[in-house]
Amino acid sequence: MIPSVLPTYSRAPLRFTHGEGAWLVEADGRRFLDMGAGIAVNALGHAHPALVSALTEQAGKLWHVSNLYTIPEQEALADRLVAATFADTVFFTNSGTEACELAVKMARKYWHAKGHPEKTGIITFAGSFHGRSTAAIAAAGSPKMTDGFGPLMPGFIHVGWGDHDALHAAIDDHVGAILIEPIQGEGGIRTLPEACLKGLRTLCDEKGILLILDEVQCGMGRTGRLFAHEWAGVTPDIMMVAKGIGGGFPLGAVLATEAAAAGMTAGTHGSTYGGNPLACAVGLAVMDHLADADFLAEVRRKSALLVQWLESLVATHADVFEGVRGQGLMLGLKCLVPNTDVVAAGYDHGLITVPAADNVIRLLPPLTLTDEDIAEAAARLDRAATAASLKSKAPA
Ligand SMILES: *Cc1c(COP(=O)(O)O)cnc(C)c1O
């Protein structure tokens, strides 16, 4: 019999009842160090007092009115994002997937409004992940996500990660944009080198096409800058944001330059919930912390500390781990044993990590974790690696 919850996930048998900072408590009382943060969502950890009070204060005033009216909290959050980034304008969504939908629509509308309705093509990359809508699965193009869901939305041109020749060959008169994650999350913490992001910007400028960055996972302070593209010193035309921006409250956004957003006039897009007062009140409190130079410097310092621990784990468990990758607190350990075995061994030792493609486990902790949390994570990962190693050597 089908479970009452549609069985599209194979879930771990863990039932968390509450959390505090980087820690989660299971129904049976066990404490887990959360190095997953709900897949890079709980940027300020669990039950952060500033977020709790932002949410409860707003909850007592007004939850929702719809976008038929002016929403002061939404305007304030948009102003904050515009002030802190390349963007001139922001549309709020409830998820990363919806941000992907709008990014695609915005790029097509841009060309349509410019008198080039034929420039519908968007180049995307192998191993990417942009969400689960029909457009987003067509964009990423992996058979695992698209199989059985056809016919797929046309217009996406897939090229290999790092395949410069294929990229150049793919650009013709029908291509209007390039869409890429500065660091692939689901794809296994694959970092686009700074020189490549700069190169993509130059290429888009030369060809007069739009650069769309998907910073749903790598944005909002995750890499030690507010947005990952800042490391390369270039800016996109359109950017997708979600995950960390709501700190656990469902919130996403599309940020764009005035030029890129030129086609998006009244009536061209909408959302009932997107940017409602509750979500934006929380988003403002998140921004208060993340958009702070000292906070981001702390993320970079903690990243260096964690990477040091991880490098030494790779050295002591050379039969389990191949290497460390990623940036800031978006880190991956490439595994030599099945990554899901390491994740499962982590559960046994009170540690939460997240598997990704390419046999990688992801470490995406709350950006607020402490130095003690980092040392504890390393100790638990050490025990988990020992267990995973023993399992891999046990006779079947
Ligand atoms: C998670 C993710 C998405 C989709 O976001 P949802 O909120 O799950 O819809 C899109 N792009 C990237 C890079 C992501 O990590």
From TrEMBL:
EC number: 2.6.1.11
Needed co-factor(s): pyridoxal 5'-phosphate
One family name in Pfam for this protein: Aminotran_3
One GO CC annotation: cytoplasm
Family designation: Belongs to the class-III pyridoxal-phosphate-dependent aminotransferase family. ArgD subfamily.
Assembly: Homodimer.
InterPro entries, alphabetized: AcOrn/SuccOrn_fam, Aminotrans_3, Aminotrans_3_PPA_site, Class-III_PLP-dep_AT, PyrdxlP-dep_Trfase, PyrdxlP-dep_Trfase_major, PyrdxlP-dep_Trfase_small
UniProt entry tagged with the keyword Transferase: yes
Top-level lineage group: Bacteria
GO biological process, one term: L-arginine biosynthetic process
GO molecular function: identical protein binding; N2-acetyl-L-ornithine:2-oxoglutarate 5-aminotransferase activity; pyridoxal phosphate binding
Functional pathway: Amino-acid biosynthesis; L-arginine biosynthesis; N(2)-acetyl-L-ornithine from L-glutamate: step 4/4
Entry keyword set: Amino-acid biosynthesis, Aminotransferase, Arginine biosynthesis, Cytoplasm, Pyridoxal phosphate, Transferase
Additional note from the record: May also have succinyldiaminopimelate aminotransferase activity, thus carrying out the corresponding step in lysine biosynthesis.
Location of N6-(pyridoxal phosphate)lysine modifications: 243
UniProt source species: Roseivivax jejudonensis
Catalytic reactions on record: N(2)-acetyl-L-ornithine + 2-oxoglutarate = N-acetyl-L-glutamate 5-semialdehyde + L-glutamate
Protein name per Swiss-Prot or TrEMBL: Acetylornithine aminotransferase
Binding site for N(2)-acetyl-L-ornithine: 132, 271
Places the protein is found: Cytoplasm
Record: residues binding pyridoxal 5'-phosphate: 96-97, 129, 214-217, 272
PROSITE patterns referenced in this protein's UniProt entry, alphabetically: AA_TRANSFER_CLASS_3 (PS00600)
PANTHER family: AMINOTRANSFERASE CLASS III (PTHR11986), SUCCINYLORNITHINE TRANSAMINASE (PTHR11986:SF113)
